[in-house]
Amino acid sequence: MRPRLVACVAALAIAAATCNSQPAMRPPVPASGGELSPAPGGSVRSFDLTAAPAKVELKPGLVVSAWAYNGVVPGPVLRVFDGDLVRVTLRNHLSVGTTIHWHGLAVPNGQDGVAGVTQDPVPPGASATYSFVARGAGTFWYHSHQRGSYQLDRGLYGVLIVEPRGKAVGVDHVVVYDEWPIGLEMPSPPPASDPAMSAYVTVSVNGRSGDAIAPIRFASGQTVRLRLLNAGYLVHFVRVEDTAVTVVAFDGHEVRGGRPTTDVLPLGPGERIDVELAANGQATWLALQDPFPPSGDALLAVAPEGAPVPAFTPSGIRPVLDIFTYGAQASASPWPKGGGVPTRTFTLTLSEISRTRAALPSPMPGMEMGDVSYQINGAAFPDTPVLEVSLGDLVTIKFVNAGRQDHPMHLHGHAFQVLERDGMAVKGLLVKDTIVVRPGSSITVGFLADNPGWWMIHCHQLHHAAGGMMLLLRYQGSLRLAQLGGPYQSTPD
């Protein structure tokens, strides 16, 4: 073949290959803005978390096909000290993308782990590193924020505890409640849209239920701290039998002056309550006073070392603790002492609307309402309004629940002080990052805009978030780091 003809054939081949080739997939947007050094006096604490399928035995005869960090549900408890630099390497061994969100921690915006807002999901087979300084002691947690309504249901969550520097850890236990959907016990679990995944068969404590729940042990005379966390989707009501407890923290924010109480502790999705009890040598039980039959599986004994655990004998119904009037005072607040004049005010009306616009019946607890649009100010995400603030603003948000379901509303990147309930001022300092707004009620919160970026505000009943009850808070001048959808299917519920 002549050289000129060879050149022409080669050129045509290159052109054809170019026309038939697909554009290369862009690299995923990573977690960004990681901090590099601990605070003065702090250390560098490094952890590896591998997200992968795992078989978890909740109780004898009930094995579920979970997704887990390092093979356990909840994932490993990460304990650090105030001021430490926390470096976590996430390795994704799942078949789908995932992220890690640091619930309750005011991390830099690019470290917040929200798919489609601050990063893309970490693809299967890839890894990512999160790096941030843990500022402020308390009980926090970590979980996926990519299709969280599905990935948390399978077990992708764990606890992060920030200890005050120099404090010795005594009898200190996490108590994590979760509901498990029917269907995960199948050899090939159905997809999230299947009705078999829409109801719950058991409630677990630290990844175990029924007789598989191990008791907490203590020596006589010790003070026991219990860090209660609700990783599920229902409001639970925790009662400590025959023993008064003192609340020492709400959502990781230490409080002082709380009175001993035997009232039932309300624990909404995403919320944490830390309590202390004086162990007097007698065994006690933690039980759930819930109108939800599977909650009967969540019995936790607290007993002296070496002593047999007595049989559980339920007592009568008790009143629920009113956290707004409990009297404990947070040691610090994001709102000015004595009050402040807000420079940005927002009202967010929460509602549930059937897609046929007909009246919505009250759903059975735990049921995912696939035909319901969960709305804020009459719109579902991503069509919800963007709240715009400037650095230094004093911001108030009034949540108004015009629907028929509880909505635990969570603010990313900030803590807030609860200012009003149903238009009446809340006395004292109640500081949280998640607050349950009951049907027919309103709650006003306030915070200082001191952490620039794009931040999620959403219902932490994540089926509601997936149904649209999410919006974004944007600081003027801040760039949004990632977008919805795209090649990595970013879905931030």
SSE order and pairing:
Blueprint: H1 3-20, E1 44-59, E2 62-69, E3 78-81, E4 85-92, E5 101-103, E6 127-133, E7 138-143, H2 148-151, E8 157-163, E9 171-181, E10 200-205, E11 216-218, E12 223-230, E13 236-240, E14 246-250, E15 253-256, E16 265-267, E17 272-278, E18 284-288, E19 300-304, E20 329-330, E21 344-354, E22 372-376, E23 386-389, E24 394-401, E25 407-411, E26 416-421, E27 424-425, E28 431-432, E29 434-437, E30 442-448, E31 454-459, H3 462-466, E32 470-475
Parallel strand pairs: 1-4, 3-8, 9-12, 11-19, 21-24, 23-32
Antiparallel strand pairs: 1-2, 4-6, 5-7, 7-8, 9-10, 12-17, 13-16, 13-18, 14-15, 14-17, 15-20, 18-19, 21-22, 24-30, 25-29, 25-31, 26-27, 26-28, 26-30, 31-32
Sum up the structure in keywords.
single chain, 493 residues, mainly beta, Immunoglobulin-like, 3 domains, 7-stranded mixed sheet, 3 helices, 32 strands, 5% helix, disordered N terminus
